[in-house]
Amino acid sequence: xxxxxxxxxxxxxxxxxxxxxxxxxxxxxxxxxxxxxxxxxxxxxxxxxxxxxxxxxxxxxxxxxxxxxxxxxxxxxxxxxxxxxxxxxxxxxxxxxxxxxxxxxxxxxxxxxxxxxxxxxxxxxxxxxxxxxxxxxxxxxxxxxxxxxxxxxxxxxxxxxxxxxxxxxxxxxxxxxxxxxxxxxxxxxxxxxxxxxxxxxxxxxxxxxxxxxxxxxxxxxxxxxxxxxxxxxxxxxxxxxxxxxxxxxxxxxxxxxxxxxxxxxxxxxxxxxxxxxxxxxxxxxxxxxxxxxxxxxxxxxxxxxxxxxxxxxxxxxxxxxxxxxxxxxxxxxxxxxxxxxxxxxxxxxxxxxxxxxxxxxxxxxxxxxxxxxxxxxxxxxxxxxxxxxxxxxxxxxxxxxxxxxxxxxxxxxxxxxxxxxxxxxxxxxxxxxxxxxxxxxxxxxxxxxxxxxxxxxxxxxxxxxxxxxxxxxxx
Length: 475
Ligand code: SF4
Fold this sequence. Notes:
Elements: H1 17-35, H2 39-45, H3 47-52, H4 60-67, H5 69-77, H6 85-108, H7 114-131, E1 141-146, E2 148-149, E3 167-168, H8 173-190, H9 211-222, E4 229-230, H10 237-247, E5 255-259, H11 262-271, E6 280-284, E7 319-325, E8 330-336, E9 347-354, H12 358-372, E10 390-394, E11 397-402, E12 406-411, H13 418-430, H14 435-446, H15 450-462
Parallel strand pairs: 1-7, 4-5, 5-6
Antiparallel strand pairs: 2-3, 7-8, 8-9, 10-11, 11-12
Helix pairs in contact: 1-4, 1-6, 4-5, 4-6, 8-9, 14-15
Bound molecules: iron/sulfur cluster.
Iron/sulfur cluster binds at residues 151, 153-155, 158, 162, 202-204, 231.
């Protein structure tokens, strides 16, 4: 093994076979712990035998530390240098993946189009207020594609309640020209963030017989291989393997297999090597798996499935932007929200339209941006604070809170004293006053500078605290 204690696994130039094998073994042990209902007991009774049963020779202590909160706390608190190398390397890989996800949310998914960028940023901030910690894992992709209508898998827990598979887009001359045109146009309009999404959403990527061809084009335009999450990895495992073998050397990234049963888990582990699965997360999606946790969204809301509590922010939607369906020639504009009777799939679907050809696609895409995505705070539009928030005056300003989720404080200083925050809040609480109304009233009542009032209102708007104009209809 190379001398380097920690390597960047997402960087192929740092590849080392023994290092990769070691991390892949730890990953498998942790996956067995989280998915195989009998593994934890077998491991506790005879750790070495439980690992050997799965062909793993990684040291026992590494797996113990990674699967026991108590042990992890103990080693992290006092005996960090005694943590075995395998555990440290696995942990470094997890940190690497998290940093990658955070970078996507912060940089790669940010559109260059100013109005789209401002709108996405408001949605992202709104989700902190509405979904709390759940928002950490939502990267708010601005654009994603579906190559099919519906999904053949029919998972009873499907968080987006995908309907049955109805149609797939085939890679013929006409569709190929439209596809390439859409990719190039969206790249021109919103920049490289147009390539930050996937080629599936409420669909199964491998339902499409031409998935490979479509994603080759995607790679040519964006230089990115879109991430795959498939629940059909074992439908034609040779296809799944061929796809990974072809695409991983072009663009290393994390893909995901949804594991729908213990039997599928075993088949995946038998078919693929540990190394092949290092960059593939196995997601426990069957109730017997100890770490299975379905979001209470979509079909999982039927009441027949044990789900995470709604207070955890029930949504699997990680988009604040467009879903373009190539098979149905449709565009939907959506953003995450907590699933509820009003929004059962945890998505706020703001608009949905069809298009006929590329010119029409451009018209619909541009139309939705200009209709729904305000870049600046509209000065004459009535403002409404989001429902479900509590507001209070504090000693140094004001605070917005959602019990158990967030408390957001705005503190006065210098030109913007606490009193100004409180005055603006007082005006907002009645609802329906525009920025101009509020600035005018405060100028008259207390000689407040309109510029300061607008500045504060902009701050609240950016924090996602106001309903968007399209949410105010009928108010
Ligand atoms: S969870 Fe995924 S694979 Fe399952 S039905 Fe929904 S879209 Fe299809």
